[in-house]
User: Fold Isocitrate dehydrogenase (NAD+) from Granulicella pectinivorans.
Amino acid sequence: MATTHKVTLIPGDGIGPEVTAATVSIIEAAAKTTGASFEWHRYDAGADAFAKTGEYIPKELYASIEENKVALKGPVTTPIGGGFSSINVTLRKKFDLYSNFRPVKNLPGLETKFPGIDMVIFRENTEDLYAGLEVMINPDIAQSLKIITRKGSTRIARSAFEFAKKSGRKKVHAIHKANIMKLSDGLFLKCCKEVAAEYPEITYAEHIVDNTCMQLVMNPWQYDVILTENLYGDILSDLCSGLIGGLGLVPGANLGVNCAIFEAVHGSAPDIAGQDKANPTALLQSALLMLRHLDEDATADIIQKALEAVYAEGKTLTRDVGGTSGTKAFADAVIAAM
Ligand code: ATP
Ligand code: MG
Assistant:
């Protein structure tokens, strides 16, 4: 008897409900052939949750993640300027999901300017300018505090090197701006260097973040594992997604000691929400990371093969990657390819 996996499902807002529905339908179709079984515990978060419950993150949602230990999450809009603080950041902090893992790899058949990309980003997920510690010094001066700790830096560095070791990767680049932020980025680099010394078989290098942006568009193939702080990681992730075809493709996992939340790199894309235009590939690939985390490799393999077949055929792709199909038609094509 296969175990039933209980997964907390946060559809989110914007394109979130569309890409989540597509992803769940694909997983359920694959599970029918492998006998895997899932129970989806659905919760709203953000503005939708506030309208219904008076809380941006309902208590029941916290309790569900605590119990299930695994969540699949669509994007939740973070209002710019005023309003509530980021739901995404709050969840990452609450469950101490310190490691944000983002593999960036071309899909077969999808032509881009940069073929043969295969790198992984490890983004520190709980500190840096994302601590949200901001004050108005006076009406004309705002201050934002950048917090970098030895603990935070060391554990993200360890995640990156452990992953490199286990997956046979050869190089880790720590990305920084320690020439300007001598203390904060200096501490981050010091911790990375100390961890690197424990992995002599892996080449360790340091690149300054602005140079990294140039290097990424001139010669992205030089990178293998990118290890970086929270804000640089956010920006570099979007840049790297552009190398392989855009934000519609790149998955992510937020990993902590006890829990994991799987979510795409992209945001809620309000410009295309509710129009059946969103590419669900990024969330689907996040779900593949989740399935492997749950040891459901057979189910993940079936989906991955079907996904790759749909891209290789190139007939039923969404608009962001040059196709004309909608979210639902794409999901149906993946199911049909199983
Ligand atoms: P956040 O601040 O939450 O990271 P963002 O400002 O980076 O959000 P996104 O919501 O990620 O912005 O959208 C950026 C652009 O990428 C938009 O034009 C959006 O339509 C497009 N985009 C994002 N995700 C997808 C997707 N899954 N499919 C198609 N287009 C997408
Ligand atoms: Mg973004």
